Amino acid sequence: MKRLKYFAALALFVVPISYTHAETVLITGANKGIGLEFAKQYAAMEFKVIATHRRTITPDTLSALQQEYPSNVLIERIDVRNLDMIDAVAEKYRGQPIDILISNAAIVADLTDPTPQMLGSLDFPLFTVFMETNVRGPLKMAEAFREHVKQSEMKRIISISSLSGSLGTGPTRLGGRVYYKTSKAALNMAMITVARATADDGIIVASLHPGGVKVEKLANFNVPGFMPPAESVGGMIKVINELTPNQSGWFLDWKGRVQPW
After folding, report:
1. Is the dihedral of CA 215, 259, 146, 235 positive or negative?
2. Torsion-angle region of residue 251: left (phi > 0), alpha (psi -120 to 50) or beta?
3. Domain ranges of the chain
4. Sign of CA pseudo-dihedral 69, 58, 33, 190
5. Neighbours of 53 (CB within 10 A)
6. Residue 161 in contact with residue 187, Cβ under 8 Å?
7. pLDDT per position as a tens digit, 34-92
8. Beta strand 73-77 pairing with 100-103
9. Rounded CA gap, 66 and 188, in Å?
């Protein structure tokens, strides 16, 4: 595999990081937030980027990225709740090795209205939406694209999780958001089972906590300590690159630190 230098801007300085160049990365929910930043950074590193979204028309963010990198950015539509859509894209890319599969697409719900996820006012149909998006979606992606990842050089299956799903720390934090927390805890367990099932394929599976990230939906919130997406994603890319087989199934943060269950 080729070697290259990628320069990630962190705060007020630039840190040179050497990466192994994977051929292809597929990212779900790549049209905004963390997913878009993954697509931008991998495209800048000359990866072939398969950037997916669930909109009925191509989002402007991805159109702009494809215009900037016309030779290595491909755009596909995947709603991770639609199993047939996932299978169709997997079939379209049959025989194409995918070095890194990143399941980023997820829902958090309306941050200004926590009541649907609070005991006493739970919106139970919403629970199904959370589980289908945040758990079943990444699980289906792992199954549908398993052979693509197996055929690649790096062989990574990555899910973007959250410390909110940690049994060791989540319950001690603020109340509410029960569906989000439950779905992320379930995602972490699902990825452990995927890690065990794909070990003989040489695939490395990991769940990553991105830290507090100032994504678009937090633009109107003043959240102390939250970092820009570029910093979080730059850290996660380094972690993904340096994963070893004995770490498969682990839950790590954006700096590679093991997170409590």
Report:
1. positive
2. beta
3. 22-253
4. negative
5. 24
6. yes
7. 999 999 999 999 999 999 999 999 999 999 999 999 999 999 999 999 999 999 999 99
8. unpaired
9. 32
DSSP 117: G
The b/e string for 161-200 (b: 16+ C-beta within 10 A; e otherwise) is bbbbbbeeebeeeeeebbbbbbbbbbbbbbbbebbeebee
Q: How far apart are CA 101 and CA 179, in angstroms?
A: 25
Q: Are 39 and 17 in contact (CB under 8 A)?
A: no
Written out in words, the top-level CATH class of the domain with range 22-253 is alpha beta
What amino acid occupies position 53? Answer: H
DSSP 57-109: S--HHHHHHHHHSTTTEEEEE--TT-HHHHHHHHHHTTT---SEEEE------
Beta-bridge mates of residue 74 = 50
Q: What is the pTM of this model?
A: 0.89
- Which residue is listed with tokens 């995947």? 78
Question: In sequence order, what are the beta bridge partners of 9?
Answer: 14
